[in-house]
Write a structure and sequence with these properties.
- This is glucarate dehydratase.
- It is globular, with a radius of gyration of 20 Å.
- It is of the alpha/beta class and about 400 residues long.
- It folds into two domains: about 120 residues, Enolase-like, N-terminal domain (Enolase-like, domain 1), CATH 3.30.390; about 230 residues, TIM Barrel, CATH 3.20.20.
- Helix 3 runs antiparallel to helix 4, helix 6 packs across helix 7 and helix 8 crosses helix 9.
- The strands form four sheets. The chain has a seven-stranded parallel beta sheet with strand order 7-8-9-10-11-12-13.
Protein backbone atom coordinates (compact mmCIF):
# COMPACT_ATOMS: atom_id res chain seq x y z
CA UNK A 1 0.00 0.00 0.00
CA UNK A 2 1.51 3.31 -1.14
CA UNK A 3 0.24 6.88 -0.93
CA UNK A 4 -0.70 8.32 -4.31
CA UNK A 5 -2.34 11.64 -3.43
CA UNK A 6 -3.31 14.06 -0.67
CA UNK A 7 -6.25 16.46 -0.84
CA UNK A 8 -7.47 19.20 1.48
CA UNK A 9 -10.86 20.86 1.80
CA UNK A 10 -11.54 23.80 4.11
CA UNK A 11 -14.95 23.92 5.72
CA UNK A 12 -16.81 26.36 7.94
CA UNK A 13 -19.07 24.58 10.45
CA UNK A 14 -21.63 26.79 12.20
CA UNK A 15 -21.68 27.02 15.97
CA UNK A 16 -24.88 27.53 17.93
CA UNK A 17 -23.45 30.90 19.02
CA UNK A 18 -20.11 32.77 18.92
CA UNK A 19 -17.91 31.66 21.83
CA UNK A 20 -15.71 34.04 23.85
CA UNK A 21 -12.29 33.20 25.21
CA UNK A 22 -9.45 35.15 26.78
CA UNK A 23 -7.71 35.88 23.48
CA UNK A 24 -10.72 36.70 21.33
CA UNK A 25 -13.59 34.59 20.02
CA UNK A 26 -14.78 31.78 17.82
CA UNK A 27 -16.82 33.88 15.41
CA UNK A 28 -19.88 31.68 15.14
CA UNK A 29 -18.12 28.94 13.18
CA UNK A 30 -15.15 26.62 13.26
CA UNK A 31 -12.86 26.70 10.25
CA UNK A 32 -11.30 23.28 9.77
CA UNK A 33 -9.22 21.72 7.01
CA UNK A 34 -10.27 18.17 6.12
CA UNK A 35 -7.42 16.00 4.81
CA UNK A 36 -7.83 12.97 2.55
CA UNK A 37 -4.87 10.68 1.86
CA UNK A 38 -5.41 8.21 -1.00
CA UNK A 39 -3.48 5.02 -1.67
CA UNK A 40 -2.86 2.79 -4.68
CA UNK A 41 -5.36 0.19 -3.45
CA UNK A 42 -8.21 2.71 -3.55
CA UNK A 43 -8.48 3.43 0.18
CA UNK A 44 -8.88 6.98 1.54
CA UNK A 45 -7.70 7.91 5.02
CA UNK A 46 -9.11 10.95 6.82
CA UNK A 47 -7.39 13.66 8.82
CA UNK A 48 -8.31 17.07 10.15
CA UNK A 49 -6.71 20.19 11.57
CA UNK A 50 -7.64 23.73 12.55
CA UNK A 51 -5.71 26.91 12.13
CA UNK A 52 -6.95 29.74 14.29
CA UNK A 53 -9.88 30.46 11.99
CA UNK A 54 -7.81 30.09 8.82
CA UNK A 55 -7.46 27.49 6.07
CA UNK A 56 -4.46 25.15 5.96
CA UNK A 57 -5.16 23.82 2.46
CA UNK A 58 -1.97 25.13 0.85
CA UNK A 59 0.24 23.79 3.63
CA UNK A 60 -1.40 20.35 3.41
CA UNK A 61 -1.21 19.98 -0.36
CA UNK A 62 2.42 21.15 -0.29
CA UNK A 63 3.18 17.83 1.44
CA UNK A 64 2.30 15.85 -1.69
CA UNK A 65 5.95 15.59 -2.75
CA UNK A 66 6.84 14.19 0.70
CA UNK A 67 4.08 11.61 0.68
CA UNK A 68 3.83 10.17 -2.84
CA UNK A 69 5.01 6.57 -2.68
CA UNK A 70 5.15 6.50 1.13
CA UNK A 71 3.85 3.39 2.90
CA UNK A 72 1.23 4.46 5.52
CA UNK A 73 2.52 1.73 7.85
CA UNK A 74 5.86 3.57 8.13
CA UNK A 75 4.67 6.08 10.71
CA UNK A 76 8.02 6.73 12.34
CA UNK A 77 9.63 7.54 8.99
CA UNK A 78 6.63 9.78 8.30
CA UNK A 79 7.37 11.75 11.45
CA UNK A 80 10.87 12.62 10.32
CA UNK A 81 9.84 13.25 6.73
CA UNK A 82 7.30 15.89 7.72
CA UNK A 83 8.37 17.21 11.13
CA UNK A 84 12.12 16.73 11.49
CA UNK A 85 12.86 18.58 14.75
CA UNK A 86 15.72 20.66 13.35
CA UNK A 87 14.36 21.24 9.84
CA UNK A 88 11.03 22.03 11.50
CA UNK A 89 12.54 25.12 13.10
CA UNK A 90 12.05 26.81 9.74
CA UNK A 91 8.53 25.52 9.14
CA UNK A 92 6.51 24.19 12.07
CA UNK A 93 4.66 21.20 10.68
CA UNK A 94 3.60 19.42 13.86
CA UNK A 95 -0.13 19.91 13.27
CA UNK A 96 0.25 18.94 9.61
CA UNK A 97 2.00 15.76 10.72
CA UNK A 98 -0.90 15.03 13.07
CA UNK A 99 -3.49 15.30 10.31
CA UNK A 100 -1.50 13.00 8.01
CA UNK A 101 -0.84 10.55 10.84
CA UNK A 102 -4.59 10.39 11.54
CA UNK A 103 -5.15 9.54 7.88
CA UNK A 104 -2.41 6.89 7.86
CA UNK A 105 -3.78 5.19 10.97
CA UNK A 106 -7.19 5.32 9.31
CA UNK A 107 -5.69 3.68 6.21
CA UNK A 108 -3.91 0.97 8.18
CA UNK A 109 -7.10 0.15 10.07
CA UNK A 110 -9.11 -0.03 6.88
CA UNK A 111 -6.45 -2.17 5.19
CA UNK A 112 -6.39 -4.64 8.11
CA UNK A 113 -10.13 -4.27 8.83
CA UNK A 114 -9.55 -3.33 12.47
CA UNK A 115 -10.44 -0.19 14.47
CA UNK A 116 -7.70 2.30 15.29
CA UNK A 117 -7.76 1.44 18.99
CA UNK A 118 -6.70 -2.13 18.16
CA UNK A 119 -3.61 -0.67 16.50
CA UNK A 120 -2.88 1.40 19.62
CA UNK A 121 -2.92 -1.40 22.16
CA UNK A 122 -6.59 -2.35 22.38
CA UNK A 123 -9.39 -0.51 24.11
CA UNK A 124 -9.92 -0.77 27.85
CA UNK A 125 -13.09 1.36 27.79
CA UNK A 126 -15.96 1.40 25.33
CA UNK A 127 -16.84 5.06 25.81
CA UNK A 128 -15.08 8.22 26.93
CA UNK A 129 -16.53 10.72 29.44
CA UNK A 130 -16.63 14.42 28.55
CA UNK A 131 -16.99 17.72 30.40
CA UNK A 132 -19.70 20.22 29.49
CA UNK A 133 -17.20 22.92 28.36
CA UNK A 134 -19.07 26.14 29.05
CA UNK A 135 -18.32 29.47 27.38
CA UNK A 136 -19.47 32.99 27.80
CA UNK A 137 -20.99 33.70 24.41
CA UNK A 138 -22.71 36.18 22.15
CA UNK A 139 -26.31 35.38 21.22
CA UNK A 140 -26.67 33.13 18.20
CA UNK A 141 -29.52 32.77 15.71
CA UNK A 142 -31.43 30.48 18.07
CA UNK A 143 -29.29 30.62 21.22
CA UNK A 144 -29.28 33.25 23.99
CA UNK A 145 -26.21 35.06 25.27
CA UNK A 146 -24.28 33.65 28.22
CA UNK A 147 -22.98 36.50 30.36
CA UNK A 148 -24.51 36.41 33.84
CA UNK A 149 -24.25 33.72 36.52
CA UNK A 150 -27.92 32.93 35.99
CA UNK A 151 -27.50 32.53 32.24
CA UNK A 152 -24.44 30.34 32.74
CA UNK A 153 -26.24 28.04 35.17
CA UNK A 154 -29.26 27.85 32.86
CA UNK A 155 -27.04 26.91 29.92
CA UNK A 156 -25.20 24.28 31.96
CA UNK A 157 -28.50 22.87 33.19
CA UNK A 158 -29.74 22.50 29.63
CA UNK A 159 -26.53 20.73 28.53
CA UNK A 160 -26.67 18.41 31.53
CA UNK A 161 -30.28 17.51 30.76
CA UNK A 162 -29.53 16.90 27.08
CA UNK A 163 -26.14 15.19 27.28
CA UNK A 164 -25.77 13.96 30.86
CA UNK A 165 -22.61 15.88 31.80
CA UNK A 166 -21.44 15.57 35.41
CA UNK A 167 -18.22 17.56 34.93
CA UNK A 168 -18.38 21.25 34.06
CA UNK A 169 -15.53 23.31 32.63
CA UNK A 170 -15.80 27.08 32.43
CA UNK A 171 -13.69 28.84 29.80
CA UNK A 172 -12.83 32.12 31.48
CA UNK A 173 -10.43 35.00 31.08
CA UNK A 174 -13.13 37.18 29.49
CA UNK A 175 -14.60 39.20 32.36
CA UNK A 176 -12.85 40.48 35.52
CA UNK A 177 -11.65 37.59 37.71
CA UNK A 178 -13.89 38.54 40.65
CA UNK A 179 -16.94 38.36 38.37
CA UNK A 180 -15.92 35.02 36.88
CA UNK A 181 -15.38 33.73 40.43
CA UNK A 182 -19.02 34.60 41.14
CA UNK A 183 -20.06 32.69 38.01
CA UNK A 184 -17.94 29.67 38.88
CA UNK A 185 -19.26 29.46 42.41
CA UNK A 186 -22.81 29.73 41.01
CA UNK A 187 -22.10 26.60 38.94
CA UNK A 188 -20.86 24.77 42.02
CA UNK A 189 -23.97 25.73 43.97
CA UNK A 190 -26.27 24.66 41.14
CA UNK A 191 -24.71 21.20 40.63
CA UNK A 192 -23.71 19.73 43.98
CA UNK A 193 -21.77 16.51 43.54
CA UNK A 194 -20.60 17.40 40.02
CA UNK A 195 -16.93 18.13 39.29
CA UNK A 196 -15.64 21.51 38.13
CA UNK A 197 -12.68 22.98 36.27
CA UNK A 198 -11.78 26.55 35.34
CA UNK A 199 -9.59 27.69 32.44
CA UNK A 200 -8.78 31.40 31.95
CA UNK A 201 -6.26 30.65 29.19
CA UNK A 202 -3.19 31.94 31.04
CA UNK A 203 -4.23 35.61 31.31
CA UNK A 204 -4.30 35.99 35.11
CA UNK A 205 -1.41 37.54 36.98
CA UNK A 206 0.25 35.40 39.63
CA UNK A 207 -1.48 37.35 42.40
CA UNK A 208 -4.91 37.18 40.72
CA UNK A 209 -4.50 33.46 40.12
CA UNK A 210 -3.51 32.97 43.77
CA UNK A 211 -6.60 34.79 45.00
CA UNK A 212 -8.87 32.92 42.59
CA UNK A 213 -7.35 29.53 43.37
CA UNK A 214 -7.64 29.98 47.11
CA UNK A 215 -11.23 31.24 46.72
CA UNK A 216 -12.33 28.00 44.99
CA UNK A 217 -10.27 25.56 47.05
CA UNK A 218 -13.37 24.40 48.94
CA UNK A 219 -15.17 23.28 45.74
CA UNK A 220 -15.10 19.92 43.93
CA UNK A 221 -12.44 20.94 41.44
CA UNK A 222 -10.78 18.60 39.00
CA UNK A 223 -8.04 21.15 38.41
CA UNK A 224 -7.20 24.82 37.82
CA UNK A 225 -6.17 24.97 34.14
CA UNK A 226 -3.63 27.45 32.74
CA UNK A 227 -4.35 30.28 35.17
CA UNK A 228 -0.97 31.92 34.42
CA UNK A 229 1.40 31.61 31.50
CA UNK A 230 4.67 29.69 31.58
CA UNK A 231 5.98 26.73 33.52
CA UNK A 232 7.78 28.94 36.02
CA UNK A 233 4.61 30.89 36.75
CA UNK A 234 2.69 27.65 37.21
CA UNK A 235 5.40 26.29 39.49
CA UNK A 236 5.19 29.38 41.70
CA UNK A 237 1.40 29.26 41.74
CA UNK A 238 1.46 25.58 42.66
CA UNK A 239 3.33 26.54 45.84
CA UNK A 240 0.63 29.08 46.72
CA UNK A 241 -2.63 27.21 46.12
CA UNK A 242 -3.84 23.81 47.21
CA UNK A 243 -5.28 22.82 43.82
CA UNK A 244 -4.04 20.53 41.06
CA UNK A 245 -2.83 22.67 38.15
CA UNK A 246 -3.26 21.65 34.51
CA UNK A 247 -2.06 22.88 31.13
CA UNK A 248 -2.55 22.46 27.43
CA UNK A 249 -0.42 25.46 26.47
CA UNK A 250 3.05 25.09 27.98
CA UNK A 251 3.49 21.31 28.03
CA UNK A 252 2.83 20.40 24.41
CA UNK A 253 6.05 18.59 23.52
CA UNK A 254 8.54 16.25 25.14
CA UNK A 255 11.11 18.90 26.05
CA UNK A 256 8.46 20.78 28.00
CA UNK A 257 7.20 17.55 29.55
CA UNK A 258 10.74 16.76 30.73
CA UNK A 259 11.05 20.26 32.22
CA UNK A 260 7.79 19.75 34.10
CA UNK A 261 8.94 16.39 35.43
CA UNK A 262 12.19 17.91 36.70
CA UNK A 263 10.55 21.00 38.20
CA UNK A 264 6.87 20.34 38.73
CA UNK A 265 4.63 23.16 37.55
CA UNK A 266 1.51 21.22 36.58
CA UNK A 267 -0.11 18.08 37.89
CA UNK A 268 -2.29 17.29 34.86
CA UNK A 269 -1.26 17.38 31.18
CA UNK A 270 -4.06 17.86 28.65
CA UNK A 271 -3.03 15.84 25.61
CA UNK A 272 -4.17 17.17 22.23
CA UNK A 273 -3.86 14.82 19.28
CA UNK A 274 -3.16 17.80 17.01
CA UNK A 275 -0.89 19.92 19.19
CA UNK A 276 1.35 16.95 20.05
CA UNK A 277 1.65 15.80 16.44
CA UNK A 278 -0.64 12.78 16.43
CA UNK A 279 -2.17 10.00 18.47
CA UNK A 280 1.12 8.12 18.84
CA UNK A 281 2.87 11.11 20.39
CA UNK A 282 0.04 11.44 22.91
CA UNK A 283 0.41 7.77 23.82
CA UNK A 284 4.13 8.25 24.43
CA UNK A 285 3.47 11.36 26.53
CA UNK A 286 0.80 9.55 28.53
CA UNK A 287 3.30 6.80 29.36
CA UNK A 288 5.76 9.39 30.68
CA UNK A 289 2.97 10.94 32.72
CA UNK A 290 2.05 7.52 34.12
CA UNK A 291 5.66 6.92 35.16
CA UNK A 292 5.97 10.24 36.99
CA UNK A 293 2.44 10.24 38.44
CA UNK A 294 1.15 13.13 36.34
CA UNK A 295 -2.52 13.09 35.51
CA UNK A 296 -3.69 13.16 31.89
CA UNK A 297 -6.80 14.44 30.20
CA UNK A 298 -7.76 14.84 26.53
CA UNK A 299 -7.77 18.38 25.19
CA UNK A 300 -10.14 19.85 22.64
CA UNK A 301 -8.99 22.19 19.86
CA UNK A 302 -12.30 22.80 18.10
CA UNK A 303 -12.60 19.44 16.36
CA UNK A 304 -15.15 17.98 14.00
CA UNK A 305 -15.99 14.28 13.94
CA UNK A 306 -12.69 13.16 12.38
CA UNK A 307 -10.45 14.56 15.06
CA UNK A 308 -13.03 13.68 17.71
CA UNK A 309 -12.61 10.07 16.57
CA UNK A 310 -8.86 10.32 17.22
CA UNK A 311 -9.61 11.62 20.72
CA UNK A 312 -11.99 8.74 21.34
CA UNK A 313 -9.50 6.10 20.19
CA UNK A 314 -6.82 7.73 22.36
CA UNK A 315 -9.16 7.81 25.35
CA UNK A 316 -10.12 4.19 24.76
CA UNK A 317 -6.60 2.86 25.31
CA UNK A 318 -5.18 5.08 28.08
CA UNK A 319 -5.17 3.33 31.47
CA UNK A 320 -4.31 6.59 33.24
CA UNK A 321 -7.14 8.68 31.77
CA UNK A 322 -8.81 9.58 35.07
CA UNK A 323 -10.41 12.86 33.98
CA UNK A 324 -13.28 13.58 31.61
CA UNK A 325 -12.15 14.81 28.20
CA UNK A 326 -12.83 18.27 26.82
CA UNK A 327 -14.83 18.79 23.63
CA UNK A 328 -16.30 21.81 21.88
CA UNK A 329 -18.39 19.29 19.97
CA UNK A 330 -21.78 20.02 21.53
CA UNK A 331 -21.48 23.66 20.42
CA UNK A 332 -21.48 22.58 16.75
CA UNK A 333 -24.68 22.77 14.75
CA UNK A 334 -23.62 19.92 12.41
CA UNK A 335 -20.72 17.75 11.24
CA UNK A 336 -19.23 16.45 7.98
CA UNK A 337 -19.29 12.75 8.87
CA UNK A 338 -21.84 10.19 7.75
CA UNK A 339 -24.76 9.82 10.13
CA UNK A 340 -24.36 13.32 11.55
CA UNK A 341 -22.88 14.25 14.89
CA UNK A 342 -21.76 11.57 17.32
CA UNK A 343 -24.04 11.52 20.35
CA UNK A 344 -23.49 11.78 24.09
CA UNK A 345 -25.13 9.29 26.44
CA UNK A 346 -24.76 10.00 30.16
CA UNK A 347 -21.97 12.45 29.35
CA UNK A 348 -20.01 9.90 27.32
CA UNK A 349 -19.40 9.18 23.62
CA UNK A 350 -18.90 5.61 22.42
CA UNK A 351 -15.60 4.75 20.79
CA UNK A 352 -16.05 3.99 17.06
CA UNK A 353 -15.66 0.31 16.25
CA UNK A 354 -15.49 0.43 12.44
CA UNK A 355 -12.22 -0.02 10.53
CA UNK A 356 -9.63 2.71 11.02
CA UNK A 357 -11.00 5.82 12.68
CA UNK A 358 -14.48 4.45 12.18
CA UNK A 359 -15.91 7.60 10.59
CA UNK A 360 -16.43 8.44 6.92
CA UNK A 361 -17.12 11.69 5.11
CA UNK A 362 -20.61 12.77 4.13
CA UNK A 363 -19.75 14.21 0.71
CA UNK A 364 -22.85 16.39 0.55
CA UNK A 365 -22.09 17.94 3.93
CA UNK A 366 -18.45 18.41 2.96
CA UNK A 367 -19.49 20.30 -0.17
CA UNK A 368 -22.09 22.33 1.74
CA UNK A 369 -19.68 23.56 4.39
CA UNK A 370 -16.84 24.05 1.92
CA UNK A 371 -19.20 26.40 0.07
CA UNK A 372 -19.97 28.16 3.35
CA UNK A 373 -16.25 28.69 3.90
CA UNK A 374 -15.94 30.15 0.41
CA UNK A 375 -18.80 32.52 1.26
CA UNK A 376 -17.65 33.60 4.72
CA UNK A 377 -13.88 33.08 4.61
CA UNK A 378 -11.71 32.78 7.68
CA UNK A 379 -11.53 34.91 10.79
CA UNK A 380 -8.84 35.96 13.30
CA UNK A 381 -9.23 33.64 16.28
CA UNK A 382 -7.32 36.09 18.47
CA UNK A 383 -9.70 39.02 17.96
CA UNK A 384 -13.12 39.72 19.45
CA UNK A 385 -15.53 41.11 16.82
CA UNK A 386 -17.57 42.69 19.61
CA UNK A 387 -14.60 44.77 20.80
CA UNK A 388 -12.96 46.28 17.71
CA UNK A 389 -9.36 47.33 18.32
CA UNK A 390 -9.03 45.27 21.51
CA UNK A 391 -6.32 42.71 21.98
CA UNK A 392 -5.27 40.88 25.13
CA UNK A 393 -2.03 41.12 27.02
CA UNK A 394 -0.59 38.43 29.28
CA UNK A 395 -1.42 38.98 32.06
CA UNK A 396 -4.53 40.81 30.93
CA UNK A 397 -5.94 43.91 32.60
CA UNK A 398 -8.48 45.02 30.01
CA UNK A 399 -11.55 42.87 30.62
CA UNK A 400 -14.94 42.83 28.93
CA UNK A 401 -17.65 44.66 30.87
CA UNK A 402 -20.10 42.14 32.38
CA UNK A 403 -22.72 44.87 32.81
CA UNK A 404 -23.10 45.34 29.07
CA UNK A 405 -25.43 42.92 27.25
CA UNK A 406 -23.65 41.06 24.48
CA UNK A 407 -24.93 42.13 21.08
CA UNK A 408 -25.33 39.67 18.20
CA UNK A 409 -22.45 39.72 15.73
CA UNK A 410 -22.54 39.05 12.02
Amino acid sequence: MKITDIRATTVALPLEAPLLHSNGAHWGRFVRTIVEVETDNGLIGLGELGGGGQSAEQQVTALRAYLEGHDPFELEALRFKIANPTAGLYNNRVQLLAAVEFACIDLIGQHLNVPAHDLLGGRIRDSVPFASYLFFRYPGPDAPEVRTPEQLVSHARGLKAEHGFSVHKLKGGVFPPAYELECYRALAAAFPGDRLRYDPNSVLSLDEATRFGNAIADLDNDYFEDPVFGLEGLHLLRERVGLPLATNTVVVNFEQLAANVMRRGVDVVLLDTTFWGGIRACLKAAAVCETFQLGVAVHSSGELGIQLATMLHLGAVLPNLTYAADAHYHHLADDVIEGGKLTYVDGRIRVPTGPGLGVRLDREKLAKYAALYQELGGYPYDRDPGRPGWYPTVPNQNWADPELPLRPIS
